[in-house]
């Protein structure tokens, strides 16, 4: 019975007491009423949103003050729609396109990153440049313009692209004097496609930026930023001058793509500042079931500078109304001139 | 802030995994040297309630249904005059649960393997007690059907557990019955976990390690498994019914996780008696 005593009394019983003592692993619960939902939403952002410190520096964001302003607006007489609007107004203080609130009937959003600025893009005129006989390699639409400049339009990083697509496109365009890579109105998608495509414009591994994540609920709890590199793609790579066309609707993964392209030597960024959105969004929810999205992992450029509010182009160019009247896209025309001149040099 | 005092380096993790692997390889091999023994196999099917939470995905407890299958092998060894028995348990479950507002679903599941060794002794009243421990490996995941960049959480853990069994055989109208209670208490091990808001893109695409293998113990991962079963005969076959309770919890890297499963179990039990093969006979027969 000695061994039994050792096993049962010395190990099992203390372990059982320890397990029971440690108790249940549970999360604080909020009431599923208006006040409870508001508090849950505020705390979800308070514990997880990654740009509080940066935005305090830029425009004085104080999340505690935001609570003090919006919490008194909650009362039991509100309708669900009114409550939704107050929640969206509170989230709007973050000025972040990656922050959304989803109810069954609406999506709360802040799209000021593009709505408050000139579009620098015109669908009808753009279609004239593409024509009808352009080629399509998965998400990439491309053609050769009259002055032997390649024109590539990538509308969304949600459209998948593979090495085969990019290689086929580059093979078709290899005799061109330069390439216009137009990512205007591309509001993001899959980050891996952005990284993959930028690998075709460098012959060596390059530091493109850094990425970190929150490692705790405090506003300053961040991991050590880790470098992000772009690796040269295997096989055919573009060696001639490239202009990347941008506008304020370049957001999220497109913002990261522009960041990556900026470190490639033969690439020039032209157009308007990008829209930003450098926080990788995560998702959570409220007691009433509404979904909330927020920036969780900040990304930086190669100089460890924030790119949440966009990336400046190397050459700023805006759409000219006179050009538009002549069915000309000022940005494409500027890029063509630039590339033709660059090729002549 | 996440404490960094118990930081585990990659070499330490590799060494520990190698040791684990060696133990798993050596101990069962030694236990199989005696062929003349009974082996009890049981297969149980379970259905019941699931309460699942992972704050990486959602701060709320998702509740729903889960189904499981448990296969167990129980056999005595020749160690300590046959007082040591080996138990192997393979268990899988699949669950579907919903958030409290019924607006989102999660699919969860895991597969676990346990091998344990128990010292047994019989009390005067024919009550048999077993106490011991073993090694467990578990892999699984939780998938939230509407999340964006954090749609799923991987579960992977391995470790040592202590175990106790009480079995009481009795007869009714000369028919054999048995009531059995078992409790397993994991007391140390390692588990995988992303850091607080670390994305899987960072871990697996970029290869950025940030305390993703953590040491676990009852303080940060209080976990227990218990079951109460009754074996009864019907027309020469032995059936088993019972209740299973699996409480898996962890609190690492600022992420809280739990899976509470309560199951009604039903299945069958089979006893095998292995005969020692006679040497040099039927040499041409295939070895199966």
Structural descriptors:
heterodimer; A: about 350 residues; alpha/beta; Histone Acetyltransferase, Chain A; 2-enoyl-CoA Hydratase, Chain A, domain 1; seven-stranded mixed sheet; six-stranded antiparallel sheet; about 20% strand; globular; B: about 290 residues; mainly beta; Lipocalin; 2 helices; disordered C terminus
How does this model look, in words?
The complex is a heterodimer of chains A (345) and B (288). By secondary structure, chain A is α/β, with parallel strands linked by helices. Among the domains of chain A are: 77 residues, Histone Acetyltransferase, Chain A (Up-down Bundle), CATH 1.20.920.70; 154 residues, 2-enoyl-CoA Hydratase, Chain A, domain 1. Chain A has twelve helices and 13 strands. The longest helix of chain A has 21 residues. In chain A, 44% of the residues are buried. The model of chain A has no long low-confidence stretch (mean pLDDT 94). Chain B is mainly β and 288 residues long. Chain B has a single domain, classed as Beta Barrel (Lipocalin). Chain B has two helices and eleven strands, in the order αβββββββαββββ. In chain B, strands 1-2-3-4-5-6-7-9-10-11 form a ten-stranded antiparallel beta barrel. In chain B, a hairpin with a 7-residue loop joins strand 5 and strand 6. The longest helix of chain B is centred in the N-terminal third of the chain and has 22 residues. The N and C termini of chain B lie far apart (57 Å). The chains are: A alpha/beta (345), B mainly beta (288). At the A-B interface, helix 1, helix 2, strand 11 and strand 12 of A face strand 2, strand 5, strand 6, strand 7 and helix 2 of B.
Layout of secondary structure:
The complex is a heterodimer of chains A (345) and B (288).
Chain A: H1 2-22, H2 34-48, H3 52-59, H4 63-70, H5 80-92, E1 100-102, E2 107-108, H6 112-115, H7 123-130, E3 135-137, E4 140-144, E5 149-154, H8 163-173, E6 178-182, H9 191-198, E7 206-211, E8 226-230, E9 242-246, H10 253-262, E10 267-271, E11 279-285, E12 291-301, E13 315-316, H11 321-325, H12 330-344
Parallel strand pairs in A: 5-6, 6-9, 9-10, 10-13
Antiparallel strand pairs in A: 1-2, 1-12, 3-4, 4-5, 7-8, 7-12, 11-12
Chain B: H1 10-31, E1 38-54, E2 58-76, E3 84-98, E4 105-122, E5 128-144, E6 152-172, E7 175-192, H2 200-205, E8 213-216, E9 224-234, E10 237-252, E11 255-273
């Amino acid at each position: 019975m000695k061994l039994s005593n050792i096993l049962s009394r010395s190990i099992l019983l203390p372990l059982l007491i320890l397990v029971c003592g440690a108790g249940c692993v549970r999360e604080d619960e909020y009431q599923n009423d208006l006040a409870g939902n508001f508090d849950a939403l505020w705390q979800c952002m308070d514990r997880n949103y990654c740009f509080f410190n940066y935005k305090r520096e830029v425009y004085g964001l104080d999340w505690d003050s935001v609570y003090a302003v919006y919490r008194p607006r909650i009362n039991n007489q509100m309708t669900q729609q009114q409550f939704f609007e107050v929640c969206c107004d509170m989230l709007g203080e973050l000025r972040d396109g990656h922050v959304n609130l989803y109810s069954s009937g609406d999506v709360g959003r802040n799209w000021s990153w593009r709505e408050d600025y000139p579009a620098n893009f015109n669908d009808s005129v753009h279609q004239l440049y593409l024509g009808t006989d352009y080629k399509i390699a998965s998400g990439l639409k491309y053609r050769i313009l009259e002055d032997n400049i390649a024109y590539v339009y990538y509308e969304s990083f949600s459209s998948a692209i593979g090495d085969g697509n990019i290689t086929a496109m580059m093979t078709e365009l290899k005799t061109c004097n330069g390439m216009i890579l137009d990512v205007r109105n591309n509001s993001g998608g899959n980050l891996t496609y952005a990284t993959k495509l930028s690998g075709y414009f460098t012959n060596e591994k390059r530091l493109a930026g850094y990425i970190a994540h929150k490692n705790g609920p405090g506003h300053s709890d961040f991991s050590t930023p880790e470098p992000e590199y772009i690796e040269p793609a295997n096989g055919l790579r573009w060696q001639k001058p490239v202009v990347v066309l941008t506008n304020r609707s370049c957001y999220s993964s497109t913002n990261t793509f522009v960041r990556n392209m900026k470190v490639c030597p033969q690439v020039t960024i032209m157009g308007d500042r990008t829209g930003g959105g450098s926080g990788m969004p995560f998702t959570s929810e409220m007691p009433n079931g509404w979904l909330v999205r927020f920036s969780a992992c900040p990304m930086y450029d190669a100089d460890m500078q924030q790119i949440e509010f966009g990336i400046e182009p190397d050459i700023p160019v805006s759409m000219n109304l006179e050009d538009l009247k002549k069915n000309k896209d000022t940005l494409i025309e500027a890029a063509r001139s630039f590339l033709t001149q660059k090729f002549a040099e | 802030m996440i404490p960094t005092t118990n930081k585990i380096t990659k070499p330490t993790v590799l060494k520990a995994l190698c040791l684990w692997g060696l133990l798993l390889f050596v101990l069962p091999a030694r236990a199989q040297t005696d062929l003349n023994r009974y082996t009890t196999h049981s297969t149980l099917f379970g259905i019941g309630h699931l309460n699942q939470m992972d704050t990486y995905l959602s701060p709320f407890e998702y509740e729903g249904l889960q189904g499981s299958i448990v296969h167990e092998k129980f056999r005595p060894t020749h160690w300590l005059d046959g007082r040591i028995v080996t138990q192997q348990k393979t268990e899988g479950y699949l669950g579907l649960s919903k958030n409290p507002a019924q607006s989102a679903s999660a699919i969860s599941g895991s597969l676990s393997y346990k091998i344990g060794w128990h010292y047994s002794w019989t009390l005067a009243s024919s009550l048999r007690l077993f106490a011991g421990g073993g090694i467990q490996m578990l892999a699984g995941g939780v998938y939230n059907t509407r999340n964006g960049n954090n749609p799923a959480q991987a579960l992977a853990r391995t470790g040592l557990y202590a175990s106790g069994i009480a079995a009481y055989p009795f007869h009714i109208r000369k028919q054999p019955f048995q009531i059995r209670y078992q409790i397993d208490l994991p007391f140390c091990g390692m588990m995988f976990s992303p850091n607080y808001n670390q994305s899987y893109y960072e871990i697996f695409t970029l290869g950025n390690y940030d305390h993703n293998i953590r040491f676990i113990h009852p303080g940060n991962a209080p976990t227990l498994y218990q079951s109460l079963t009754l074996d009864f005969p019907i027309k020469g076959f032995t059936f088993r019914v019972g209740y299973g309770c699996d409480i898996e919890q962890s609190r690492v890297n600022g992420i809280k996780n739990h899976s509470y499963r309560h199951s009604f179990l039903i299945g069958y039990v089979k006893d095998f008696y292995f005969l020692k093969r006679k040497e040099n006979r039927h040499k041409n027969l295939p070895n199966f």
